[in-house]
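Table 4 source record.
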Amino acid sequence: MPKREDINKVLIIGSGPIIIGQACEFDYSGTQACKALRKLGYEIVLVNSNPATIMTDPEIADVTYIEPLNVNRLEQIIAKERPDAVLPNLGGQSGLNLCAELASEGILDKYGVQVIGVQVDAIERGEDRIEFKKSMDAIGVEMARSQVSYSVDEALAIADELGYPVVLRPAYTMGGAGGGLVYNKEELKTVCARGLQASLVGQVLVEESILGWEELELEIVRDADGNMITVCFIENIDPMGTHTGDSFCSAPMLTISEEVQKRLQEQAYRIVDSVKVIGGTNVQFAHDPVSDRIVVIEINPRTSRSSALASKATGFPIALVSAMLAAGLTLKDIECGKYGTLDKYKPDGDYIVIKFARWAFEKFKGVEDKLGTQMRAVGEVMSIGKTYKEAFQKAIRSLETGRYGLGFAKDYNEKSKEELLRMLATPSSDRHFIMYEALRKGATVDEIFDITKVKHYFVEQMKELVEEEEAIAKSKGSLPSDEQLISAKKNGFSDKYLSQILAIPEDDIRNKRIELGIEEAWEGVHVSGTKDSAYYYSTYNADDKNPVSEEKNKIMILGGGPNRIGQGIEFDYCCVHAALALKKLGFETIIVNCNPETVSTDYDTSDKLYFEPLTLEDVLSIYKKEKPLGVIAQFGGQTPLNLAAELEKNGVKILGTSPSVIDLAEDRDLFRAMMDKLGIPMPEAGMATTVDEALEIAKKIGYPVMVRPSYVLGGRGMEVVYDDESLTDYMKAAVGVTPDRPILIDRFLNHALECEADAISDGTHAFVPAVMEHIELAGVHSGDSACIIPSVHISEENVATIKEYTKKIAEEMHVKGLMNMQYAIENGTVYVLEANPRASRTVPLVSKVCNIRMVPLATDIITSELTGRPSPVSSLKEQNIPYFGVKEAVFPFNMFPEVDPLLGPEMRSTGEVLGLSTYYGEAFYKAQEATQTKLPLKGTVLISVNRKDKPEVVEVAKLFAEAGFKILATGKTYEIITDAGIEAEKVLKLYEGRPNVLDLITNGDIDLIINSPVGKDSVHDDSYLRKAAIKAKIPYMTTIAAAKASIKGILYVQKHGNGEVKSLQQIHLSLTTGFSVTAGVSALLTFAVSGDATASNINTKTPITIFVLLPPNHFL
């Protein structure tokens, strides 16, 4: 069947910011869809609010809107662009929900927009719990016994009928948001109230518990003719009761009989055919191994987290194929080198894939590390091996948690068998590490199965690893026998872990195994729908089948590993751009990464992809095999940087900024000496490894001080400390402090404006595209602070100083590539806080707002010693940016209801959005709207601030009064506001009686909350206010700076209404720049001037229009 000719322009809805449950797998699927549909000749309009993804780069779609994802904004875009069709099933739950809303409000009909890929009624049948149950009953597929409730009372009655425990599943949500497993009435009341609020339609399914059953998933692809194939069978090794996003999984299924797999497939085909999805669908089943009962849990009529995993596990690009099928092609039309055409595809890989999740519990004080039906993971890794043991151990060393094997995690090794078995009763992120130590302490396979319901096969495999490790450990202090070493390598034990068990250097292990001829071999995973494309995985259990080309010079890029807070998709963005830029420069590109969710692990981003852990062992093996000219480590965040020095020691050439410069930036003494030499001020500081040293430094500097470990990303372990007692506690709790990795202590700049600048440097000259101003004051991590680009409140003089300091530092450090600088301005003085001589998380933001291709330019510089190309830095000119971009962070506090949602020096956001406008107030307003907490334009504002914010609260209150808001205030805040002649009403705090603030929030009487925390010196905790705001979905500001920005945005929108939507391409046309053409690029200039003008007689004041046609990635 040929592609559809009745549509020309397609609107693709992206998934918005990275949140728990909806991460960069949708960035990957949306980017693939744009690629597939443009190749088929369609014009693509993309809308997404996320600036960090490559999807919102102006080259990916024909027209790109970085706008809040809601019905109003989408109607504006549809009215302007008039697409023929919308493709909603590649933008996660956000895309599906929005499409359903657009349809129900009649907007799609009004503008004649067809829905392709999945029909609106199919979304309803897949997402609405009642409709789904009806559909399943009609085709004879069994579901868990359940009923739908629309209130807590209904849910209580249903639970009594079904018997506790029960599972609550809100409709139209993702990542299990708002749901959970409840064992009694009180728990049900809490979770059900949360679920009704989280659901788009106020509907919660109450379902019988199938705890402990096997959880199994099938990834199905269907075309318009009803042809169906099963791309992948996934077995969750953790049983029902743990969300699939948190579960440890394998593909193919390892313990499920052929007969059960056939039954699952037959039922999945019936379900997908009845829902009539075109493209990928994920179907989740539960199977009771005792009664042999199979029930369907749910379907996702869209590409999902599991589709990204299934795509990378099998080499079948589900999103790419789904987009082609949505455009009218069938599976028979898509050719494939291995199967002829895709309708003949079968998942027949002779390898095992393991997925393991990555969590961030350490970022959220007071959160219990406990897994349930609501997803908690922030990222994941995928590993491929020939055997289960090999793949499992590869997955562990891919996680980058400092663990290279399963044993000796935390202090589990010191606990008794009984203690460990007790810990296993509640699933946690460390469950498999605890199981390992329990087996070491003599727990039986049956004991572990009875508690965890992890099947015997998997526990047996783990037991064999424990026994093998114990035998190896008997050789402690020397190399094991040759047979032991060979066996250990075949079973996935890493060099690093063996060196830890044996207490000998890792080099000794590596040298010994190489001497024995035990080296990594590689096999390919064929990419379906291509002639012969493949990507590669290593194994110690097969012969090498990895052809190496010698045609071009090669460069290797090290990726960022699993997504986590502090190191997210922005670094993947940099790696992808570097790969594309290197291809244009004529190099063969090699990417090493282990994250299945990302664009960098798409088969055609690089010339060759190694799906491997980012450890010394794995990277060195690939380097030895491929012999690249060098390795780029500065784009993948902290992951490759932590490897760079060791790689260099082993003879690997690191391109760009040298690892010694990176160490210099981390060494506070060396860095301070350099700042003194350059005459650049820094806050007073010191380094300490003991409590006494720390107290002495604090005494000299004066409180408050900022304390943090060295060599971390995302402000891990950073705190502002106000007294000796807190500092002592911090030092005692600090882990891994050594003389070469001390604790850094800085004077905390109080009430200082924080800002940052990115630079592109060639070692002798640097260019700073723009200075970013943080809206929150110093003390809030830069990744969590809202930020304005270009800056608004920084004086011209200070902006010039920041640019000058940045250039000076980049030149002094001989940075080659990208650099990020953090500054604070206190009383008009610019202080340097830190230098990061690498790509930072702001690179995509600056690239998009300033229309400058930072990574391609940096890549050109990094490789100039190989290409001989001139540096582009001297030809880069400052621009006047006639609009503002406001980045706002997105937090997972709704998934952690027990956490106080305060901002501080430790990063806690999972993603970000961008608001663009010619007025900064509106840009801020749009950024808030994009985080799904739209600022109210009228109503009631509650103001309750701490002592240090009292002087500024009057200005904020005055502006809210001017905007017509009713003002409620507490205690002292009320007195200050009313003394200034502003009308306000006093409300009681929680401990002052009833009705109090909490009652008003719960009853929906408050529309916006301004609340700066009271801090540790107060006897009364005020975190209830902020927690209640999240629960009630009320916008809340915890800093005066954010409150000011909010009210300015509200006033602007009150006066001017919702501004027109402009595409990124249209916005970029308004940029003006000093004119210079990059060396070696021809430009076509057309002068449109009044009168008879020639190039020689144009008056400089004559208005002229210059049209410049340049190849992509060149910046004027």
